[in-house]
TrEMBL record:
It is found in: Membrane. It comes from the Eukaryota. Residues 43-55 have a biased composition (Low complexity). InterPro entries: TMC, TMC_dom. GO terms for molecular function: mechanosensitive monoatomic ion channel activity. The keyword Plastid does not apply. This is Transmembrane channel-like protein. It is a multi-pass membrane protein. The chain crosses the membrane at residues 267-294, 364-384, 454-478, 502-523, 544-563, 583-604, 681-706, 756-773. It comes from Haplochromis burtoni. It holds the Pfam family TMC. Residues 573-679 form the TMC domain. Residues 1-102, 138-162 are annotated as: Disordered.
Length: 831
């Protein structure tokens, strides 16, 4: 401000009750800076109006008269009673309800924050000036995103008259002219930023389009210009049609909206996570199919084919072993050469004899395809994790999100009755979740209650850890028993009996994965968590502990028992056996998912309705179902080395699981009794998919390629000590044929063979995640400080206005006392 306002109530002028013109000028001149700032921003008309307000303020002699006149009638609240004959009170709007005088109201209406959303003529004038400035800088075409939107309500019209009709029309015409000369993108952004109704924006846009058409019709365009014009219009329409078509191809869009409306964001996060897994498997299959399956299918090796019996669909063995589904089918030579001698002898030879053709080295392609598929998947997961971290750990507070959801979340383009119903359910569920989060109370409990709660939690975790450890030991000894039985009886077993025994291990593991989560839920109900989200996160942790321990035992069984001793159990290709095992585990996991849906949800709902005569339905178990998805995806990642077609099996399984679970949720389940906003679940799911799942699968695959000796009679690495030496062998051949390429061999030695760079890459990924989390945390703190600052500034404004009002009242009272004293003296002297 240019001059400070004196709020000292003990000032001599206050005590004397004299209204000094200098002080009055100080009060009014304190807003000169606001007028100057507003006029500097390009709102000259606003400055003139503010100066007119100030002159009206200086000329007004009486402050105790209420605002009146027809121009103020629309400011009063609806239902205000008429003034009674005895001088009854009339209801006023909230501004007048504070008891502020007309001077204070005019000062308030002159504040910059109150003059943004003023009358329509002023808005049009303001944006006319903006478009004029933008048109003058049209050659550089600057971005207008920095233009501040004007959308706040105003009390500007107190004591003011709006623009005349002729002036408004002229301003509208100038605005239309300026908009017509702007590029289309800037024109659209400018129209969107105007604080006008949709109908008025549409009217202005139609005027601009009509003027453009008139100009184009008056101009005589050449044939080339007309052809160019029509080509541009056709291309734009084609592009919009293509975008609409791509949007229509988005899978399960309507179903996901329906689930979100009825069951909330928790259940929705499960189906979104399933959809994400489908995309990961599609990418994995595209990579392996393009670089491994398709080249080998075009140039198949000579094999004795066996007949299809149908049992292969259950066991994965039989005729499937002689197809591109498994590792052993792939050749160890450079395509397109066919080798008739596949027995592993020197004649099949391999990398050396055919590398000079340099057509398509299958061992090298197999090695680098699997490695690059895991590397790219890791990059995508890290990016998705960092992105969802910033989106889900919201910086906004629940009350601000609630305000946005209440006033600005409805899509007025939705006109179909079914879509309107889905959207209303969705918004209602989100409002319930936000209100539940706002009304959640954190009660302080006594020491005894906290101690008892910790004891219950300790007992619950002890039960869960003990049961998981027991299941791990059971799977370990059961797999060892099956391995020893195959060593002793593999020659005497019937093939059907052998495959039936091989199905026993996947069946036992699937039974444990089905029953033990029920025990975890029972223990969780014993703990009585107040927040449903905390209960879900604890259940996710316990189920993750179970799934990862099971997978750890199975990986030890395959890589620690079967791979070194595969000949003792009658195998010729242990990689095919591991691929078949993973296929059986995926199939059994799908079968037990169906059984859980049938018995755990459908039959329980029928039993509750028919026998118990209750309308209660089971609640969808998010934790167990999500960990089932992570368990299945880990199996798919583990098996892509041994079965490049396994991602197709996982895709089919996920599609079937989606529709089965969707139907079961809509028919057999009910929404959680306590609504909660699961804003962080998607981030947690992606994190669990990255760190325990993909990281564990990558470690197992890397260990297999780096340390375990491949089978000597099948697969692309049959003549090598390890799969990893395929790249080194190829580099040696390149260096021998062309000594100038020795740099590549050294680069391969230092960067690929050295595990140090693998750890460096992993460290870089972790550092990126850490810095992104720190940036989000810093943004959260900054926005919290800004919100507190805005709140404090509002309190400061209120304090200053109250002080102005009190000073003005004291001056007014002092002036009245002075007038009364002067009147008494005059009367005394006169009489």
């Amino acid at each position: 401000m240019s001059r400070n306002v004196n709020f000292d109530l003990s000032h001599p002028l206050m005590e004397a009750g004299l209204e000094s013109p200098a002080d009055e000028e100080g009060v009014h001149d304190s807003f000169q800076q606001l007028i100057a700032e507003h006029s500097d921003n390009g709102a000259a008309s606003s400055a003139l109006e503010l100066q007119q307000l100030q002159s009206d303020l200086d000329e007004e002699s009486r402050d105790n008269e209420p605002l009146s006149g027809p121009e103020h009638e629309h400011r009063r609240r609806q239902g205000a009673s008429d003034l009674e004959c005895d001088g009854g009170e009339r209801e006023m709007d909230p501004i007048q309800g504070e008891g502020w005088s007309s001077d204070t109201l005019k000062i308030l209406s002159s504040m910059p924050s109150r003059t943004i959303g003023r009358n329509r003529g002023a808005i049009i004038s303001q944006y006319c000036n903006k478009t004029l400035k933008l048109r003058r800088r049209r050659q550089t075409r600057p971005s207008i995103r920095d233009f501040s939107p004007s959308s706040r309500p105003s009390i500007r019209s107190y004591g003011m008259e709006g623009d005349t009709t002729d002036a408004e029309v002229s301003k509208r015409e100038r605005l239309v002219n300026n908009l017509q000369n702007l590029p289309v993108s800037d024109r659209v952004r400018m129209l969107r930023g105007m604080p006008l109704s949709v109908a008025e924006k549409k009217e202005i846009r139609n005027l601009v389009m009509q003027k453009e058409k008139r100009i184009l019709s008056n101009k005589k365009l050449s044939c080339c210009s007309q052809l160019k014009y029509y080509i541009i219009i056709a291309a734009r329409k084609s592009w919009y049609s293509w975008l609409s078509f791509l949007h229509s191809l988005q899978p399960w869009h309507t179903l996901l909206k329906r689930v979100s409306g009825r069951f909330g964001t928790g259940v929705l996060s499960y189906f979104l996570f399933l959809k994400t897994l489908v995309f990961f498997n599609v990418f994995l299959f595209l990579v392996t199919g393009a670089f491994l399956v398709l080249p080998q299918a075009v140039h198949p090796p000579y094999r004795d084919m066996t007949s299809f019996s149908g049992l292969e669909l259950l066991t994965g063995a039989g005729s499937f072993s002689h197809t591109v589904m498994y590792y052993g089918y792939y050749a160890n030579y450079t395509l397109p050469r066919r080798s008739r001698d596949e027995g592993g002898g020197q004649n099949a030879s391999t990398l050396t004899s055919d590398s000079q053709q340099f057509s398509y080295n299958m061992p090298l392609a197999y090695f680098f395809t699997i490695g690059m598929a895991f590397f790219i998947t890791c990059i995508i997961l890290v990016y998705s994790m960092s992105k969802t971290f910033g989106q889900s750990f919201r910086i906004n507070k629940s009350n601000s999100i609630l305000t946005m959801k209440t006033f600005s979340c409805w899509d007025f383009k939705v006109i179909k009755k079914k879509s309107v119903q889905i959207m209303s359910e969705n918004i209602g569920t989100q409002l319930k979740e936000l209100l539940a989060e706002l009304t959640q109370k954190h009660t302080k409990s006594t020491f005894c209650k906290r101690f008892c709660r910790l004891m219950v939690h300790g007992v619950a975790w002890t039960i869960c850890i003990a049961s998981t450890t027991g299941c791990m030991a059971g799977i370990y000894y059961f797999s060892e028993f099956i391995h020893k039985d195959l060593q002793q009886n593999h020659r005497n077993l019937d093939p059907l009996m052998k495959e039936a025994k091989l199905l026993s291990l996947p069946t036992v593991v699937s039974v444990i994965n089905l029953l033990l989560p029920a025990l975890f839920n029972l223990v969780g109900w014993m703990e009585t968590y107040e927040s449903p989200s905390v209960f879900a996160y604890v259940a996710i942790g316990r189920n993750l502990m179970l799934k990862m321990s099971m997978l750890g035992v199975l990986c030890f069984h395959w890589l620690g028992r079967v791979a070194p001793e595969y000949k003792s159990i009658g195998l010729t290709c242990w990689e095919d056996f591991v691929g078949q095992e993973l296929y059986r585990f995926l199939l059994m996991d799908f079968i037990f998912t169906l059984l859980d849906t049938l018995f755990g949800e459908l039959l329980w709902r029928l039993f509750s309705e028919k026998v118990l005569k209750r309308k209660r339905k089971p609640v969808f178990d998010i934790a167990r179902n999500v960990l089932d998805l992570i368990y299945g995806q880990t199996l798919a990642w583990l098996g892509v080395l041994f079965s490049p077609v396994l991602p197709v099996v996982q895709i089919l399984k996920l599609f079937l699981v989606f529709y089965i679970k969707m139907s079961s949720v809509m028919l057999n389940c009910q929404a959680p009794r306590k609504p909660y906003r699961a804003s962080q679940m998607t981030t947690i799911f992606i994190t669990l998919l990255c760190i325990p799942s993909l990281l564990g699968a990558s470690v197992c695959v890397t260990y297999t390629m780096w340390s375990i000796t491949p089978s000597t009679s099948c697969g692309p690495f049959r003549t090598l000590d390890t799969m990893f030496k395929a790249g080194k062998h190829w580099m040696e051949i390149l260096e021998k044929d062309n000594p100038s390429l020795s740099v590549l061999s050294k680069a391969h030695t230092y960067f690929v063979e050295n595990p140090f760079f693998l750890f460096v890459g992993a460290g870089i990924f972790l550092i990126v995640i850490y810095f992104h989390s720190q940036v989000v945390d810093g943004q959260r703190k900054i926005i919290s400080l800004l919100q507190d600052q805005i709140q404090n500034e509002g309190e400061d404004k209120k304090f200053l206005i109250n002080r102005l009002q009190s000073v003005h009242k004291q001056k007014q009272d002092a002036g009245k006392r002075l007038k009364s004293q002067v009147g008494h003296l005059y009367n005394h002297q006169h009489f």
